[in-house]
From TrEMBL:
It comes from Stichopus japonicus. GO terms for molecular function: arginine-tRNA ligase activity; ATP binding. InterPro entries: Arg-tRNA-ligase, ArgRS_core, DALR_anticod-bd, Rossmann-like_a/b/a_fold, tRNAsynth_Ia_anticodon-bd. GO terms for biological process: arginyl-tRNA aminoacylation. Keywords: Aminoacyl-tRNA synthetase, ATP-binding, Ligase, Nucleotide-binding, Protein biosynthesis. Belongs to the class-I aminoacyl-tRNA synthetase family. The keyword Ligase applies. It catalyses: tRNA(Arg) + L-arginine + ATP = L-arginyl-tRNA(Arg) + AMP + diphosphate. SMART domains: DALR_1. This is arginine--tRNA ligase. Coiled coil: none annotated.
Length: 335
């Protein structure tokens, strides 16, 4: 998997990349562009101008140029800037400036600054390598692959999975645990990066959720009932919801649209992660007391299948799959 695939990058453009040079040249506004010999406020960074001698372009200039391009030329209706929270004061000026220029109408177009905290090492200091260098994402992914394979082998999964299934599970756990650890924390807060916690199969981790998902999917396979058959049965088979745990699970599942709307409103992905964890835990409570498939104790053959409860299993798996898709996790059928 490449970094672009891992990050699900559609186009290689940053906040101020890809600006039309004509837009940069047109922004000759006092305080936006400065001659290179003029005073530059401490902390600002400069980039070479688009061929105009004696001028430098600063972050404020290029960000305004790209906002103009995305709104007026590309006709965007929602811009989301996902940037370190330390840059909030910069965008507190840039967004009102774009409004003052008449480039967008807040009732029609939305521009949001989504700040995030700092990733810390287990020493509670900014996450660095032992030599003090910035940690590369590619190195984290490689380390995640190594550790996830060790975890799977420690559980003896290499004895029951085919080489292809083991590799798929390894990738799912490695990439999923890193993504989920980042998204499951409130983005406004700093968090401690720990592979040991990420790869724990207990608690609110990707590993626990991915295992829970594969267990749920295995129930229908045990019953020898396909997803298509369950969907067809749902058209005419009622779900009685006689047991309290059936009711509890159902009420959690129907909250999914509400959670999605709330997540879209505040753009805090930990809200969706918390819900996903609640779904998995509630399903465990349900499955412990509500039998879906009954087997003969001697032969192991399936004796009866409760289609109503099997539909609850299918609905749970489908909701979890949708959450995984939004979060960028890749579940597997066997783990």
């Amino acid at each position: 998997m490449t970094l672009r695939q891992f990050l699900q990058v559609c186009a290689n453009r940053g906040a101020n990349r890809g600006a039309n040079p004509d837009n940069l040249i047109s922004l000759r506004i006092t305080g936006v562009r400065r001659r290179k010999e003029d005073h530059v406020h401490p902390g600002t960074k400069s980039t070479p101008d688009c061929g105009e001698v004696g001028w430098w372009v600063h972050y404020d200039t290029s960000d305004l140029a790209t906002i103009k391009q995305r709104l007026l030329e590309e006709k965007s209706d929602w811009l989301i800037y996902v940037v370190d929270s330390g840059q909030s004061s910069h965008f507190d000026l840039i967004i009102p400036a774009a409004l003052a220029m008449g480039w967008y109408e807040p009732s029609v177009t939305k521009i949001q600054f989504v700040g995030f905290g700092v990733v810390l090492g287990e020493d509670k200091k900014k996450f660095k390598t032992r030599s003090g260098d910035t940690v590369k994402l590619s190195d984290l992914l490689d380390e995640g692959l190594r550790r996830s394979l060790e975890t799977l082998k420690a559980k003896g999964r290499d004895k029951v999975l085919s080489p292809e299934e083991l590799e798929a599970a390894q990738n799912s756990v490695a990439y999923g645990c890193i993504k989920y650890a980042d998204l499951s924390h409130n983005r406004n807060n700093d968090y401690v990066f720990s592979f040991d916690k990420m790869l724990d199969d207990k608690g609110n981790t990707a590993v626990y959720l991915l295992y829970a998902y594969t267990r749920i999917r295995s129930i229908a396979r045990t019953a020898k009932v396909s997803s298509e058959k369950i969907r067809n049965a749902a058209k005419e088979t009622p779900v009685p919801l006689d047991h309290a745990k059936e009711w509890k699970l159902s009420k959690v599942l129907v909250r999914f649209p509400e959670v999605i709307l709330r997540t879209m409103d505040d753009l805090c992905m930990h809200t969706l992660c918390d819900y996903l964890y609640e779904v998995a835990n509630t399903f465990t409570e349900f499955y412990e007391v509500c039998y879906c498939v009954e087997k003969d104790k001697q032969t192991g053959e399936v004796v009866s299948v409760d289609m109503g409860r099997l539909m609850l299993c299918e609905a749970t798996a489908n909701v979890m799959a949708e959450c995984f898709d939004i979060l960028g996790l890749q579940p597997v059928q066997k783990m």
